[in-house]
Amino acid sequence: MQLPPSVTPRAFERLAEIAAADQGHALRVAVEGGGCSGFQYDIRLDAPAQDDLVLEGQGQKVVVDSVSLPFLAGAVIDFSEELIGARFVIENPNATASCGCGTSFSI
């Protein structure tokens, strides 16, 4: 049995700040083909769908579609704020390699 992805409290806190202006949407984390390493993350605000895995915390939702779920098994969704910018990041134990920007990976 695969572990579902998890979301850090810091990511839920940032999502709460963003969602205050966009009620009814969740943070969608998906995997699609492309990028410099073969797969890339698609992270955006979106309405939850019926077959999504819904991760909830602090009154917020993060959703993962059923196709992306095997690629994100055991992954940790976090939020990083650095001098060069702020973004949601994914620590994915399934990725064997990733690009420098962190949005593309291979398995």
TrEMBL record:
Family annotation (SUPFAM superfamilies): HesB-like domain (SSF89360)
Domain Core: 7-102
InterPro entries: ATAP, ATAP_core_dom, FeS_cluster_insertion_CS, HesB-like_dom_sf
Superkingdom assignment: Bacteria
PROSITE patterns per UniProt: HESB (PS01152)
Protein name, UniProt field: HesB/IscA family protein
Species the sequence originates in: Lacimonas salitolerans
